[in-house]
Amino acid sequence: MIAAARRLAVRHPAHLALAALTAGLALAPAPPWAALATAATVTTALAAARSPGLALGCAALLLAGTAAGDARLRAIEAPAARLAAMGPTPVAATAHLLEPPRASRFGAAATVRIASGPLAGMRLYARAAGSARWPARARPGMVLRVRGLARPLRPGGEDRRGRPDGEPRFDFHAHLRREGVAGELSLRHVAATGRVRSGLAGALDRARERAEAALSAGLGPGEAALARGFILGQDEAVDPLLREDFRDAGLAHLLAVSGQNVMLLCALALPLLALAGAGIGVRVTVLLALISAYVPLAGAGPSLQRAAVMAGAGLVALAAGRPASRWYALLLAAAATLALRPRVSGDVGWQLSFAAVAGIALLAPPLRRAALALLEPLTRGRRLMRRLARAAADGIAMTVAATVATLPLLALHFGSVPVASVPANVAALPAVAPVMWIGMADAALGQLRPLPFAGQLAGAAARALALPFGALLRWIAAVAEWWAERVPAEPLRLAPWQAAVAYAALAALAVMLARRRAARGAGASVALSAALADPDTPLGRLRERWRRLPRATRAGARVAAVCAVAALVAGLARPPGPPDVLTVSFLDVGQGDATLVQHPRGGTLLVDGGPPEGRAVRLLRRAGVRRLDAVVATHAARDHHGGLAEVLAELPVRLLLDGGDGTADPSYRALLATARRRGVRIVPARAGLTLRAGALTIRVLSPPPRPPGPPPEDPNPRAVVTLVSAGGFDLLLSGDAESGTLLRLPLPDVEAMKVPHHGSADPGLPEVLRRARPEVAAIPVGENSYGHPAPSTLAALRAAVPRVARTDEDGTIRIEVAAGGYRVRTER
After folding, report:
1. Chain center to CA of 217
2. Distance CA 604, CA 81 (A)
């Protein structure tokens, strides 16, 4: 270790000095003793490496970085401290909207900057709830008139409430503090003034609006939302389910502008500048100007800031005629972003961005050499094929390296890893650069719109580009949907020390590969090339036989190889077939209900579909469902019927048992409209009705016919209660109908039941259990603020039922029924 430190001190003193400054900035939020201990460690290590001067200099830079970061933190947090001292404060002022409002279950919210009154200059997270509504077409830069109550943010520390697995939930207030937000604003009134902010920020707002308009020209709403996400990082209009597909497929980085955007911007502009005959100085100046304009236009997120600093450092080094060090540029980017926001190191996007770049720097070169060793020798004498092989090797190596380097962080922060990340990114790779280039060209053309003649030409050009642009966007979206559906993200949670061990192992692997290459000289690529070129080796003889084959034979062999690989990938990604025994699945759709019953002799039934974000249709396909004989909507509640619209739109369904009870709920009415449009037979659910779906018998026990008048305000007591039977197996499903409804019904003995209403407190549940005598009880429940399942319900179930399972802890619960009995299986 001392020898390594000595080599670093001799060869890269500037790197060490910058690393010390960066470490000091990163330690600014930590206690002072942490900076002093780190400085002492650095001094001791470098002094032992016989570099006392460098040791003292690095220690001084580390302490200076900590002091500068601490001063910056005090300046950033001064408004929050002032609001904390004031306590809850009424607000009646004008404010600038800083981002589009995003919907949530607690009301649409956005960050605003107060422009008048005692809180002027403060950034607040404003939430419009109750009767308050954001103005239609609310845009960043709008000047609003707001009234409400401002409160300081909750003190630091993660909230562990509501997580059954004991893991900390996302600390949203810590995230707001990192963004410089001083507090929350509960809006009682918000209205547009008709004005927009002025100055440089206003000019950027208008430039962004022109870019958005140009990106949307000639595209459908969904494609336009994707285009704005790819180019400007504005993913709020992207369908939430599609956003989830991108995340599960490992393509979420495409919807968050990052270093890839900056790299492709430079790659687009450099050839144009070269064709114009611009010298190196002009090229660097223009590229720096383009990056400086693009970064604030695209939101200036942490990863984009990092990429901009790294690109700027590389360009300046290029102009100075000095080779740019990727590690020096990475350290410079870290120092710049930490100096701007000392707490940004806690931002997951910042961590993922730096991990990806470090992974590319360490792992991409050996991966690229391995890919070229396989591809390049097969393209000798073909310049175009050789260029394509090198481009493919570059893309694959960078994709694999970035994916591997970010996996520990994904497991640490999100508890899952996108298994399909590498093949999905490779499949999307050919379309990514064209999408970025067309989108950036559109955004640039949009800035000409205010000019009379040039604006018309720009609009025509944007519409002409819409055809290939839309096709490429649809291709990437289809890749995300295909891989997310067939190879879902796998749960994997790492503790911080486990993530640190994983990164230490990756670093050791990279060092080992680098040393092996240095020891072997040219490495495997040249060795393989030489073996292929030598006719006396087996590989050389094989190559000569290949070259002597007729051209048509070789072309056919290539096509067959491609088809074989495609068939292998499709076979690996193909979802399983239906089960070969009667199977009841209580699907894990979060806080909601969805129960699937499959019989091997025919009959597939779905009772409820959970909320839309539960993606019931994907879970059905993973269970081997290709069509549904019957779907039951027990009642109008988002957590029960919300996911059924997608089910009806995506899968063939013969019959819908309608438990809407005449509701006026617009989403439930849309569900019925989807069923009619798809030709699904709709049957009102009424007590006494008996249906058959293959080998399944479905008896409706409740509700009775509704008396005249409007539907009841609470649909739960009249939710559809069904008894599903097959042979000697009976299953009781009751939606959200609790004991008040169930005890009025002729309940038979059953083998299994779904616990009503997600396990809510129900004093009559023990009597229901005494009469039904189930051997298995399943509680469909997710993270919630209602206290489900209630302790009294859990106690009653433990006392009366041999086997109790719950989806929030066990995942999807399956009961497999065979001649010899049944078996309960869970995901976790």
Report:
1. 27
2. 59
State the Cα–Cα distance between residues 529 and 526, nearest whole angstrom. Answer: 5
Q: Cα–Cα distance between 405 and 399 in angstroms, integer? A: 10
Which residues contact residue 47 at a Cβ distance below 8 angstroms, ignoring those fewer than 6 apart?
A: 55
> How far apart (Å, rounded) are the C-alpha atoms in residues 387 and 614?
44
Q: Which secondary structure element, helix H or strand E, spans residue 583, and what is its range?
A: strand 582-586
Alpha-carbon distances of 195 from 96, 113, 192, 201, rounded to whole Å: 10, 15, 8, 14
d(CA 353, CA 356): 5
Contact between 110 and 100 under an 8 Å Cβ cutoff? The reply is: yes
Q: Which of 821, 615, 606, 808 lies closest to 722 in space, CA to CA?
A: 606
CA distance 771 to 759: 18
- Tell me if residue 619 falls in helix, strand or coil: helix
DSSP string, 777-817: EEE---S-SS-PSPHHHHHHHHHH-SEEEEHHHH-SEEEEE
Residue 260: what residue type? Q
Closest C-alpha to 510, from 377, 329, 327, 328: 327
**Cβ proximity of 465 and 441 under 8 Å:** yes
Which residues face 699 on adjacent strands? 690, 723
Instruction: Give the model's pLDDT for residue 811.
Output: 87
pLDDT of residue 264: 72
Q: What type of residue is 172?
A: F
Q: Locate the DSSP E strands across 171-294.
A: 183-196
Position 697 scores a pLDDT of 92
Question: How, if at all, do strands 582-586 and 813-818 pair?
Answer: antiparallel
Which residues, in sequence order, are CB contacts of 705 under 8 Å at separation 6+? 686, 687
Q: What is the CA radius of gyration of the chain?
A: 31
Name the stretches of the chain with pLDDT < 50. Answer: 1, 157-168, 522-525, 528, 532
d(CA 513, CA 521): 12
Q: Which helix (DSSP H) or strand (DSSP E) does residue 729 occupy?
A: strand 729-733
Percentage of the chain beyond pLDDT 90 is 22
Q: Exposure of 710 by Cβ count < 10 A (0-12 exposed, 13-18 middle, 19+ buried)?
A: exposed
Diameter of the chain by CA atoms? 93
Q: Structure tokens of 413?
A: 């922060």
Q: Using N-to-C axis directions, what is the helix angle for 52-86 and 13-26, rounded to 10°?
A: 20
Residues sharing a CB contact under 8 Å with residue 55, sequence separation 6 or more, in sequence order: 42, 43, 44, 45, 46, 47
The number of beta carbons lying within 10 Å of the beta carbon of residue 823 is 11
Encoded tokens for 556: 């056919």
Question: Cβ atoms within 10 A of the Cβ of 493, count?
Answer: 14
**Token pair in block for residue 512:** 């080992």
Q: How many helices (H) and strands (E) does the chain have?
A: 28, 22
DSSP characters over 48-80? HTT-HHHHHHHHHHHHHHHHHHHHHHHHHHHHH
C-alpha to C-alpha distances, 358 to 327, 366, 506, 510, nearest whole angstrom: 8, 14, 11, 11
**Within 13 A of 820's CA, how many CA atoms are on the CB side?**
1
Q: Indicate the helix (H) or strand (E) that contains 151.
A: strand 142-152
Q: Quick one: tokens of 509?
A: 């692997």
DSSP 661: T
pLDDT, tens digit, 9 for 90 and up, residues 67-81 = 998 898 888 888 888
First to last CA, the chain: 43
